[in-house]
Amino acid sequence: MSTERITMSLDSDLLVELDRLAAEDGYKNRSELFRDMIRHQIRERMLAAEPATDCVATLSYVFDTRKRTLATRLMDNLNQYHHLVRANTLVCVDEHFRMESIALRGRADQLQHFANIQLSESGVLNGCLHLVPFVANETC
After folding, report:
1. Quick one: pLDDT at residue 137?
2. Domain range enclosing 81
3. In a domain? residue 4
4. What share of the chain is helix, strand, coil (3-state, %, to 5)?
């Protein structure tokens, strides 16, 4: 794959914000930031257009151990969707709260469905699913 040079015009306020983002996120130059922004848009559009896209993902959430039967319900969900689960890690945040991170692989729509089930359990405080399309195309 060859690299092409392009020229862009941005108003000065937007350029200041772009440089701030690049510096805060540790980019060495604007080009790297632009490449990542474009790749992000390609991934998002691919997932929206093709919900059956094969993905790897992480699902992380914090839950309250004082909620009766919550740990059992979360584990039952993991067992029911075992075909998507590759690994999981449980971290003690403090005496009452745990963070669970689950490595997943499957179709984007299936992974989103599983995440919705886990995150909607009463006692799960906050969480996030991060989908990464599993494609051999270097542009993603």
Report:
1. 59
2. 54-133
3. no
4. 40, 30, 30
